[in-house]
Sequence to fold (453 residues):
Amino acid sequence: MLAALPSDSPWATNPEVLSALRTLLTQQPRPQNYAAVLNAASSFKTLMRETDLQQQVLSGLNDPNPEVQRAAVRVSLEHFLADPQTEPLVKTAFAHLDPSATGVLLEEVGDPKFMNRHAGVSGGAISQDQAYFLNKNLVAIKRPTDLLDNPLVLSTVLNSLHNPDNNVRAAGLDTLRKVKGVEQRPEFRAAMEQLQNDNNPRLKLIAVSVLEGKKLSEALKDVQPGSVLDFNYFVAKIEPILATQGADGKACVFCHASHVIFKLRPPNDQGVFSDQDSEDNYKYAMHVVDINDPTKSLMLIKPTRPTDSAGNVGDYLATLDRLAEATASVAAFRPEIEQRYQERLSQRLMAATGPEFNQQRLLEEIAVMVERSDVSEELARMTAHIGHFRELLDSGGESGKKLDFLLQEMNREANTLLSKTGGISGKGTRITELGLAMKAEIEKAREQIQNLE
Fold:
C-alpha cells in the first residue's frame, strides 16, 4: 500500500512511518522483503533525498536479487534522474550495470507504468488501466511518461546494443523501435555496423536490414523462411524424417498437428507436402532450433525426454477455463470485501490518530486507500490475459515466450490480488483460496511452457 501512496498524502510526511521505513532500509541483515521496502520508500521524498539511502538504492542496481534490481531501477528513474544533484550518480551507476540489471532497466523503460503509481485517484474516477480494459472514455488523461525522452536513458539503451548478452542486445533493439528517427542517430548506426557481424544470426539480419534502409520496427519482424536456416535442406532432409513412422507406429507430423510450439502440417494422401505446408512447418521448426548452439536445440533434445503433455492444447484450455472460473468467483465477492476492508481500515486509522484528527481528511484518506485495495483492475487484466492466451492457442502458438510472458503477467495479477485482500475475514479467506488456486494453475502451465522452450 505504501508503494502506491499518493504524492500529496499526509502519510508521506508522517514521522513515525518515515522512521520505521528508515529502520527497515538500514537493518542488517536486511529483511527478506527488502525489495518491497525499497518500493515503499519511493513514496517518501524525504527519504529519497538522504545521501546514504541514495547510495544504498544505487548499489541495489546490481543486486543478486532481480526484484531488488527492479525496485532500485524504478527509484532511480523516478527520483534521481531529474535531480541535478543525483543525475551524475545515476549516469555512473547505469554505465556499470550488469546484463541482468540492464535487462530489468530495458523492461521498465519500455513500459514505465510505475511512474504513475503515486498519481492518486479521487472520487469515483477510474485509472487509465481500467479505462483501457473496460473500454471507457476518459477526459484529460495525462500523457504516459516516455523515459526514452531523457538523454541519459536513451544513451543507456543505445549502449545495451554492445552488451555481451544476446538477450540484452535483442531487448535493446526492441526498446529502441519506439524512438522516432533512431535509424539516423550516429551511435545507433555505429551499433548496427557492429551488429552486422554479430554471432547471433537474427541480430545480424536485423542490423543488415536497417543498414540497407529499413526502419528498425520493420526489421524486427519475424524472420522469413530461408533467411536464417537452410529452408531447402529442411524440406529435403528434415521434413521426411518428421513424416516417417516411429517405433510406436506414429509420425511426428500427426502427433504435432495441435502442438502449441512445434505445430506441424501432415503431407497429403500421397505423402507429399505442399509448398505452403513446408513453409509453415519450417516456421515452427525455427522455434525449436537454437541457432547459437544447434546441439542444444529442442528439436534434438525433446525426443529423448520422457513423454509429457507440454504441448497439449487441451491441457492449456482446461487451465484457462479454471482460471476464468476463479476470476469470476473473486469478482462476485468484491462488494463484501470492499465493505469489510473499509470498516477495518476506518477503525485502525481512528485508533491510531485519535479524536483530534481532521475527520474529513480521514475520510478522504480512507477513500484513496480503499481504491488502492480495489481488485477490479487485476480482474480485468486477468480476463484480458486469458483471452489473449486463447487467441494464441487458436492461431497455433506464435512462440512459447509469448505464452510464458502472459503466464508471468497472470501470476503477477494473482500475487497483487492476494496482497490486496490478505487479512480480511469472511469472503476474504475464500478469495485467498481462489488466488492460491490461480497461482497453482499458472505455475503448472509455466512448467509445461518452459519445458517446450
About this structure: The chain has four domains: 2-115, 147-219, 231-304, 313-452. Residues 120-144, 304-310 have pLDDT under 50 and may be disordered.
